[in-house]
Amino acid sequence: MSQLSAWDHPEPLALATAPLPEYGTGSLADLLPTLAAGMGVPGMTAGITELAPVDRACVFLVDGLGWEQLRAHPGEAPFLNSLLGSSRGGTGRPLTAGYPATTAASLASVGTGLPPGAHGLPGYTVRDPATGALMNQLRWQPYTDPRRWQPYPTVFQLAHDAGVHAAQVSSPTFQHTPLTKVALSGGSFHGRLSGEERMDLAAAQLAAGDRSLVYTYYAELDGAGHRYGVASDTWRG
């Protein structure tokens, strides 16, 4: 299995040009609130002004695949790469991840519409102030009450309460996890194993309401990157 050594020792980002989270106007945390605001959900703000309101929206989140990875590997994802120029309402600009850009913090920002410092899941491993123990916020070990960390309603919950058809389509493995409960719950959850099944079901859920907010999640690429390395043959495949 081949590996690309260029990814083994990446150049550090220059502080003067390092990308900063565009909280409030163009971050992952602003995506679902912007879509929900366009569907008339009370209390939601359309922070990403470049996105026009729509009645139905499907957010397809591929964990571990961002703007820079698509630009660096156009041959592996030609269709997605072809969309970069029309992204963010035709501006050709990306949304920014929050900080830290780890899975637990990012997914909680997506689902709640809040930055990590507000929703209470600020990293992969954090110190529990009640016990002093280190807690893994992705695997939720050792277990603590999830609502103690993240008490806010999700965008899906608010959309569902406003009459929007809200649905999550993901691996069945994630249905009952504490992270899903506090960050991505609301509406209905549909577990499917393969990516093809998720896409088919997401399309069906999108058509299920006059107003629909559907989220589908693909974790396998991130898992391949962690296990075999970004740009490995397995990751590329």
How do you describe this structure in short?
This protein has 237 residues and is an alpha/beta fold. It has helices spanning 28-38, 67-72, 78-82, 87-90, 103-112, 116-119, 146-149, 155-161, 178-183, 195-206, 220-228, 233-236; strands at 56-62, 125-127, 134-136, 165-170, 188-191, 212-218.
The biggest beta sheet reads: 4 strands, parallel
C-alpha-based Rg, rounded? 18 Å
Q: Find the count of extended strands (DSSP E, 2+ residues).
A: 6
Q: Please identify the top-level CATH class.
A: Alpha Beta
Secondary-structure class = alpha/beta
- Which of globular, elongated, flat, extended, rod-shaped describes the shape? globular
In terms of DSSP E residues, the strand content is 5-15%
Oligomeric status: single chain
Regions with little confidence, pLDDT below 50 for 5+ residues:
none
The percentage helix is 25-40%
The helix tally amounts to: 12
End-to-end C-alpha gap:
12 Å
Instruction: State the CATH architecture.
Output: 3-Layer(aba) Sandwich
Write the CATH fold name: Alkaline Phosphatase, subunit A
The figure for the number of domains is 1
Classified in CATH, the superfamily is Alkaline Phosphatase, subunit A
H-E order:
HEHHHHHEEHHEHEHEHH
Mean of residue pLDDT values? 93
